[in-house]
Amino acid sequence: MKFIFTLFFLSLVWSSVAQQEDFVVNWSRYQNEVNSASDVQKKSTSTSNENDFGLYYNESSKSFEFSKNWQNNSRLSNVEITNIQLEPAPQQIINKINVEQLTEDYNLSYAEMKAREVSYSSVSISPVVIKNGVVQLVKSFSVTYNRSSAAERNFTVNGMQTITNSVFSTGNWYKFYVENTGVHRVTRNFLSSLGMDVSSINPNNLKIVGHGGDMLPLRNSENQYFDPPEVSIKVIGGEDSSFDNGDYILFYGKAVDDEWNEESDTNLNLYADRSYYYISANGLGGNRVADYVEPSGTITETITTFDDYQYYEVDEYNIINIGRRWFGDRFDVQNERSYRFNFPDLVQSEPVQIQVYGASVSEISTSMSFAIGGAELGTLNFGTISDSNYGSGQSANFSYSANSDEIEIDVIYSNNGNPSSLGYLDYINVTAKRELNAGSDQFSFRNYEVASLFGLGEYVLSNSSQVSEVWDVTDPTQITSVSNLDNSNSFSFNVNLGEVREYIAVVNSDFYTPRRASSPLVSNQNLKGNVFNFNGNQEDVDYLIITSDLLFQQANRLAQYRSNRDDLNIKVVLLEDIYEEFSSGKQDISAIRNFVKYVYDNAINASSRLKYVCLFGDASIDYKDRISGNNNIVPTYESTASFSTGSSAFASDDFYGMMDPQEGNLNSVTGLLDIAVGRILADTPSMARNAVDKIIAYESRESFGPWRNNFVLISDDADESGSGGYGLQVELDQIGDEISANKPFVNVKKIHSDAYQQVSSAGGFRYPDVNEAITEAVEVGASVINYFGHGGENGLSSERIVTVDDILSWQNTDKYNLFVTVTCEFTRFDNPALLSPGEYSLRKEDAGSVAMVTTTRSIFVSTGTAFNHLLAPYLFNYNNEDDSIAESVRKAKNAEGTGNIRVVFYFGDPSMKLQLPEPQIRLISINEAPFTQTSDTLSALEYVKLGGEVQDQNGNLLSNYNGELSTSIFDKRIDRNTLNNDGNGVFEFTTLGEIIFRGKASVSNGQFEFDFVVPRDIAVPVGNGRVSFYAERNSILEDQQGYTNEILIGGINENAPEDNLGPEIQLYMNDESFVSGGITNESPFLLAKLSDENGINTASGIGHDLVAILDGDETNPFVVNDYYETELDDYTRGNVNYRLRDLEEGLHTLTFRAWDVYNNSSTAEIQFRVASDDDLKINRVLNYPNPFHNYTEFWFNHNRPFEPLEVQVQVFTVSGKIVWTQNQTITTDGFLAREITWDGKDDFGQAIGKGVYVYKLTVKSTLTNKKVEKFEKLVIL
Prior knowledge:
Elements: E1 4-9, E2 14-25, H1 28-32, E3 40-44, E4 47-52, E5 55-58, E6 63-71, E7 76-88, H2 91-94, E8 109-115, E9 118-125, E10 128-131, E11 134-148, E12 153-158, E13 173-178, E14 182-187, H3 188-194, E15 207-209, E16 230-231, E17 233-236, E18 248-253, E19 275-280, E20 290-291, E21 299-303, E22 305-313, E23 330-331, E24 336-342, E25 352-361, E26 366-372, E27 375-382, E28 392-400, E29 406-414, E30 422-435, E31 443-445, E32 456-462, E33 467-472, E34 480-483, E35 490-496, E36 503-507, E37 515-522, H4 527-530, E38 533-534, E39 537-538, E40 543-547, H5 552-566, E41 570-574, H6 575-583, H7 589-601, E42 612-616, E43 637-638, E44 651-652, E45 676-680, H8 685-698, E46 710-715, H9 726-742, E47 747-752, E48 759-761, E49 764-766, H10 768-780, E50 784-788, E51 791-792, E52 795-796, H11 804-809, E53 817-822, H12 837-843, E54 849-855, H13 861-875, H14 885-896, E55 904-907, E56 918-926, E57 929-930, E58 938-940, E59 943-950, E60 963-970, E61 974-977, E62 988-991, E63 995-1003, E64 1007-1013, E65 1023-1024, E66 1026-1033, ...
Parallel strand pairs: 20-34, 21-32, 40-41, 40-42, 42-45, 46-47, 46-50, 50-53, 53-54, 56-67, 58-68, 70-77
Antiparallel strand pairs: 1-12, 2-3, 2-11, 3-4, 5-6, 6-9, 7-11, 8-9, 10-11, 13-19, 13-37, 14-18, 15-16, 15-19, 17-18, 22-30, 23-30, 24-29, 25-28, 25-30, 26-27, 26-29, 31-36, 32-35, 33-34, 33-36, 38-39, 43-44, 48-49, 51-52, 54-55, 56-57, 56-59, 59-64, 60-63, 60-66, 61-62, 65-68, 66-67, 69-71, ...
Helix pairs in contact: 5-8, 6-7, 9-13, 13-14
């Protein structure tokens, strides 16, 4: 089935009014920084002046391109480039480009694209040209064009509206593969080995289908077959309508690795090692090789030669585990190798064409030379590695006049005296002219020169007596044959000149033999026919989940959950089925994309086209499992650039979301996303289950809480001037303020690294307080955490403000965040040799992130800045469009529009929305008087009562709303500044004020009220504070938000009643059953229960924090203000629940100090013994009551909560006789066990005598099999 796309326009009437778009290109970043982007400003009377980042550097081709798209509903015509301003190129730019490729041409191109229902126009130019021998840069230019007077243009799809069935939907199909390209013979015995019932075969119905061994095209418009095409076959025998022993089938099969692929710059199939075909004898008659109809006329060209092509290419090494370019032979100690090629009947008068590609990894310049028989062909000169480039690749074309059929190419790598340098060979391609001299072997031939000739040509084959026929196999589905009927030794046939066609000389004594697949019988399937079927109805698909059989169960679980919750039409599709139907059983990324495109294009209604695609599984740069521990589940698109971690060496799932005809080859920057794409990073069923668990938990009641109102921004420090250092914090701060302005209910917490004290360590400069602040922010909870700055595979920023160890320590169960990290390589997920920090955050069980918007390679600072600004309005729903996170990313990427943006990924469920609470909660009264801007001021030590309502978006009371309200009241905003740690300037910014009250209240019939005493520690000047509300509704999965910034806070109540008593404090470890001195694990929870008649102070006055001090170390207290919350409807009582981390084994003493709002303090102490999590420990073994008569419980502390423990209690007489034994498996939520009880009777149910007895308690871990035991005494009365 061939898919043809046609562009229709609603009007053919064109306006004569010329339009103009003006562009300014800023080259400054490229002039000062390797592989950095510049700012591009678009100035137009019709649009606002906003940063445009359309300048793109292609590392692979060593060239620049400027590309810009803008929303435009009109068709372009008469497009011209004008007003060009040039400047001489500096040496920094010249060093980055291949000057030999430069011309005077600006190569203006334009296109019209559509991203779902939004139309765009795009222009592209080459911004580097050569004029009068001088390399020049385009500084600015204009594009003028005429446009249609129609209001809009529309893209429709021709030939895609009829949903077809796969050939595999019916009949019996049998799978086999070919190892060579050429004519294969399929015998009766071979069909029998496949499992076919050969006795019932009707030869007329035999048919073979298959795509062949080539990779499918990347560009959408070049894909012709969306189902295995039926190839032409020839049945020998079978005229009697039976397929007998002497009968056989001939067909032309294409193997993998048999053809040069321009898109991927390789001879090899990157994804597959076998080329599969399928045979069936069901249905109607099959496609047969047809007789060739020779054209007649006067011969204008006699063709007695053909162009033969041979290559050497092996894929064994990926130099830095990036990109889809792999290398074969490595040159190290062995720095010389030879490669032999044989071209029988070589036309020595025609030069041999040789194409080579090699690479080097070296700190100094090296080279690779090529020679034949001592005659040098040429040399590849390699550059040096750098911080951003880890290898250097070069290609060359040589011409050689050979005097022998044997050609031996010698390759020598010169390391220039550096023994650590390494050279790599990618390929040697050799094209040679040969005489059309046949023989006893089948052979393929073509002649490239005929493409430029006109008229009638005659191919003449000599020595052709064994050639039975020649097949034209240019199109394997329409093969024609010309027979050598008289076995002539000089066989000829006529052709029309003007195009290159592929032929094969068929020799009856030389057929290839196909190979049996491991499981030949193919189960019937019909993705195309069934994908729109939902319970017998034809409906559009909203959401595709693509996964492997390994992860299918969890993918299906996600689909069922999302379908039930969001009423989406979802299909979970196995990769194996996609490959079978769309690429004939071979792995191929274009097969996946073609399936997605099939679903998208065949939508029943254009308005309900496919919206989401989830790639449910991990991916790897290694498509063929050459790397140990490889985890290529659902493959991703890899760039051909493979020497740097820069943006040109991207991996991208955008490939699966671009549906327009011209899109697909991502080496071009032109392309817009039509579908929101997300990926679940999992390569085992347990990882998949964890990912789905977190998604479901994220949207469940367990994850409700006021943390959903929080947004945390984290900026890198200003360790350099300019936009890549000082400017990062400025840009991110602006985004935070923009979010506050547009979504004022969001509480924006700012962590600017340079606002904290920098310290020097053995590993370099560090910000330990920033690490602690980030961890605290993660655990307190935030809907979004956004980091902007430098980063890599070791963490965030060069000061390591987030490391893998930090991530592994996070404990934010049911407070899973969206982590946005527009930085370099933080989530380089496709490197199977290393787990990135982003992957740790996503994979962490019961903690970390539920989704990420992150980068897999380096990203230009300017692009990161633009993307952050573009993402925020969509993510936080400024325009109330209710987009999913992935849809927000899609829109932001389309708006940014450069190839550099391909490094940005969304990891997570693409249909999942940011779980922001709905509006609205309003403050109605203060001290039972209506709340207005002139209402009472909240003064220090004043008792206040606030009242409010939960309302709908129109301000109407929701009188049926019952639930629980959480309130945070902030003091006035605080002016802060950075500390200028690196000497690049001070940045001033504002943050939220200190929290003066955090409490809970009941909501009844939509109304609530709560009271509290304002802490003494508020800032005295009167100003606007902030109230942040969050409510969750009983019985209904619904939560609301509200705020006011109009409440006045300041001053002091001079008539406050006296209070000189500090708070009451009760301390526990892990749970309230803990007894001081008991055992804990290495990271126990501190539970502090506080009470005071006037409430607890959390306003962070100097020295008045809630603090925990471990082992007397007052210089490093744990400040736990943010972990305190009052009990429901009672501001006088509350709890602190704070996790300590990585404590040393042994006895510890913790002192807790709390202050009430009057600044009276109290302290309390608790002791606990930390036992290693590796060892099973028990202590405080006792029975209670003791002495006892007929009931007692056996208690003990242990360090294995939530783990099943096998416990045995044996009671002995003092002489050692066993009187009672109890075995029981217990699991405790905390560290105290008290499940085993005894009634004082022996094993036979008889009461035993009064007296003293000894008992042995034995505890065994079911996970480690470690066992401990203790002896104690008991007394029976």
